[in-house]
Write a structure and sequence with these properties.
mainly alpha; four-stranded antiparallel beta sheet; Alpha-Beta Plaits; about 5% strand; 4 strands; Clc chloride channel
Length: about 525
């Protein structure tokens, strides 16, 4: 009873609880900003060193000195061995990290925050720094979530508060990775938590702004992509954006099945141990001399697309190479995300589309750069199915604040293409796959502990709880409704109480029932036949 009273007081006693979350949000933002700044710095150093190393190896080979190339290829073998050891010791650091955080927030996974933080940081630097087509954003989200959990555990907070701080830390990680505080907040609400509450918003905003401030002090306040000044896209040409959204929506629709197919092939061919990371690393070692543009995350490729006019055939090669290499890299399970490679694929797709229109005389060349930016948002919307996050993210990453209307237009078009063709959000699919294969994944899909936690949910219109009496709802076993808030009014949670859309519902339940309760309360129920 004492524990229950404390949890309820934490949720309902606004002023004191809000102030505490404000302070903890600042702490999460500071620590997350420092961790992501270190991550970005190490990856930036690797971006500078990589072309220099390729040049030295190539010159040595041409001069008949084969010792340097031998050392070069041996280094990739060592990196593969280190990545294998890291993944074996901490399975929760594999892949993007975003599906794992969604699983934890949904009560279906657990993680050891310090072990994951160290493993993800080192593994991400090794994998991305070696040239694999992976992004820093997924690891940054997971690193931020680790910081949020670490702050919560350090202050011995409740599981309810821990989920808030982990969501805030995740958004702070994305914000710090891309200098995009608004996108970080929206991503945490739209993609990770999929719900809204004042306390969650306050903690997320505080952490994201603080983390971005930390990284901007170190790296500067400019946007991540250096696109330059873009012309304002005229309203009478918005029909072109619809066509661009359709074009990229089709391309993006093939990305998710490709990822799952690559991961399944690794499993089907029983590629294990050191061979799993060695395959993409061997490709990176060779591609550095053949097509270096597709190595790494690819933010420099986006800058180059906006500054140089590439032939159409080369753009097609870039897209195909980046697409396939990303599938091979991510399918191996090494630490690294798909966020940035997705944006690069969208930029190249936009460049292909603009090249076609410019060559055909349907688009003035002055607007070609605009389509590159719009292509990133469209590809993100088609793959992740979070069009608002994608639009705001690209706006902040490119500094194109006067293009929000165009970004939303093309993003919604690409989103509808993916939705109407049965496409599912990529992180949902990756999470479901991890849960299905948890017995083979050596702990990545372990169920949560079944501990009692406090949970805040918002009643959605059309959900099972919409206009239902508390006594008529089939609650999971051991779930207790402890309070209801309707605006500024508190409703007694008696059995005869009726719930309405927008009500904040506070529950005491097992963490294994979080996903089921969110489906009941926050999702629209299927129509009755």
């Amino acid at each position: 009873m004492a524990t229950t009273d404390r949890l309820v007081k934490d949720m309902i006693r606004e002023r004191r609880f809000h102030f505490r979350l404000f302070i903890e949000g600042i702490l999460v933002g500071i620590f997350a900003g420092c961790v992501i700044a270190l991550f970005r710095y190490l990856l930036g150093v690797s971006e500078i060193l990589r072309p220099m190393i390729y040049s030295i190896v190539e010159d040595s080979f041409n001069n008949g000195d084969y010792y340097v190339p031998a050392i070069y290829f041996s280094a990739f073998v060592i990196i593969a061995w280190l990545l294998m050891k890291i993944v074996d010791n901490e399975p929760m650091c594999t892949g993007s990290g975003i599906p794992q955080i969604k699983g934890i927030l949904g009560g279906r996974m657990n993680m050891r925050w310090l072990s994951v933080l160290v493993s993800k940081l080192i593994g991400g630097v090794l994998a991305i720094g070696a040239g694999l087509s992976l992004g820093r954003e997924g690891p940054s989200v997971q690193l931020g979530a680790c910081v949020g959990q670490g702050v919560s555990r350090g202050f011995i907070r409740t599981r309810y508060e821990e989920r808030i701080l982990m969501t805030a830390g995740s958004g702070a990680g994305l914000a710090a990775a891309f200098n995009a505080p608004l996108a970080g907040v929206i991503f945490g609400l739209e993609e990770l938590n999929k719900s809204f509450s004042p306390v969650l918003l306050m903690a997320s905003v505080t952490a994201a702004v603080t983390a971005t401030t930390v990284t901007q002090v170190i790296f500067g306040a400019g946007p991540v992509f250096h696109i330059g000044e873009l012309e304002v896209f005229p309203l009478n040409m918005f029909g072109t954006l619809i066509l661009l959204g359709l074009f990229i929506g089709v391309l993006g629709r093939s990305f998710n099945p490709g990822l799952l197919l690559a991961m399944n092939y690794y499993d089907r061919l029983k590629i294990k141990g050191m061979l799993r990371p060695l395959l993409p690393l061997a490709m990176a070692a060779a591609l550095g001399f053949i097509l270096p543009e597709i190595l790494g995350g690819g933010n420099r490729l986006v800058d180059a697309l906006s500054r140089h006019w590439y032939p159409l055939y080369f753009l097609v090669i870039l897209f195909a190479g980046k697409f396939l290499f990303t599938l091979v890299c991510f399918g191996s399970g090494v630490p690294g995300g798909i966020f940035l490679p997705m944006l690069v694929l969208g930029a190249v797709s936009g460049a292909v589309f603009s090249s076609l229109l410019v060559n055909a005389g349907f688009l003035p060349e002055i607007y070609a750069g605009d389509l590159i930016v719009f292509g990133m948002a469209a590809f993100f919307a088609a793959v992740v199915k979070s069009p608002i996050t994608g639009s705001v993210l690209i706006m902040e990453m490119t500094g194109s604040f006067h293009h929000l209307l165009a970004l939303i237009c093309v993003s919604m078009t690409a989103y509808l293409v993916a939705d109407l063709t049965g496409g599912k959000p990529v992180y949902e699919e990756l999470l479901n796959r991890a849960l299905r294969l948890k017995e083979q994944a050596q702990g990545i899909g372990d169920n949560s502990s079944g501990r009692r936690i406090a949970l805040e949910l918002v009643v959605a219109g059309g959900s099972m709880a919409d206009k239902a009496l508390i006594r008529d709802i089939k609650w999971p076993e051991q779930t207790v409704v402890v309070d209801i808030k309707r605006g500024l009014q508190r409703i007694n949670p008696m059995e005869e109480a009726r719930l309405y859309p927008g009500d904040f519902l506070y529950l005491l339940t097992n963490d294994t029932d979080i996903s089921h309760l969110k489906d009941m309360i926050e999702k629209e129920a299927p129509p009755r036949r």
